From TrEMBL:
Protein name: Epimerase
Cited PANTHER family: NAD(P)-BINDING DOMAIN-CONTAINING PROTEIN (PTHR14097:SF8), OXIDOREDUCTASE HTATIP2 (PTHR14097)
Length: 225
């Protein structure tokens, strides 16, 4: 199965959102990760010996920070906006165009990089819903870039870590549903720990190009590294 690396140096986007924050916490706690770089528009609020943070406003232009993005073998891309209330043009720009710009910049700077993209359950390039089509196109075009690996994650309901700063407030009212949902439809329910550990465990693989649904995320999270 595995491939051992001398170091795992990871870039995380979206660390001021619920998913990105959860992935960040797990990476900082993981002995498999040597260093973490987060790129944010505002401070993430975390400090750690492994952690470096770049505050950068324009994700469509990384030219002023490119030299700081060299030397990383993974990107866990957790940045995104909801389609609710967003017009089609804005959603496409902030979902497809932004993601592809960041990905193309990173693959140019780092050989042998693994790119993990969080899309979501229901993503389908040929689907009926516009958001699903945009996410699906993003997944498809990421697969075409010359990364060593691309993993597209399609989680459904994600149970956040306890005491996350950026977890949606409504989760504390609906977390009781998690064990019921997991029993009835396991693929639609995973924990933040499982999602983050699955991302970390991609780094023991080579030449992976996969779309992972909930059950596959749970399975990958259980792999020993």
């Amino acid at each position: 199965m595995g491939k051992s690396r001398s170091e795992n140096n990871v870039i995380i986007t979206g660390a001021t959102g619920m998913v990105g924050e959860g992935v960040l916490i797990q990476c900082l706690n993981s002995p498999e990760i040597n260093s973490v770089l987060v790129i944010n528009r505002k401070p993430c609020g975390y400090t750690h010996p492994k952690l470096k943070e770049i505050i950068h406003q324009d994700f469509f232009d990384f030219s002023t920070i490119e030299t700081q993005l060299i030397g990383y073998n993974a990107c866990f891309f957790c940045l995104g906006i909801t389609s609710v209330g967003a017009d089609d043009e804005t959603y496409y720009k902030m979902t497809y165009t932004l993601t592809m710009h960041v990905a193309k910049t990173l693959v140019k700077l780092n050989e042998a990089m693994t790119f993990c993209y969080v899309s979501g359950s229901g993503t389908n390039e040929n689907g009926r819903l516009k958001w699903a089509q945009v996410k699906g196109k993003t997944e498809s075009d990421l697969m075409k870039l010359p990364f060593e690996q691309v993993y597209n994650f399609r989680p459904g309901f994600i149970k956040p870590l306890q005491n996350q700063k950026y977890a949606h407030k409504f989760y504390k009212y609906i977390n009781w549903l998690f064990p019921i949902g997991r029993t009835i439809y396991s693929s639609g329910f995973c924990t933040m720990i499982e999602l983050a550990n699955a991302m970390i465990n991609t780094l023991t693989h080579t030449n992976g190009r996969k779309i992972l649904d909930g059950n596959e995320i749970i399975k990958l999270a259980k792999e020993s590294t």
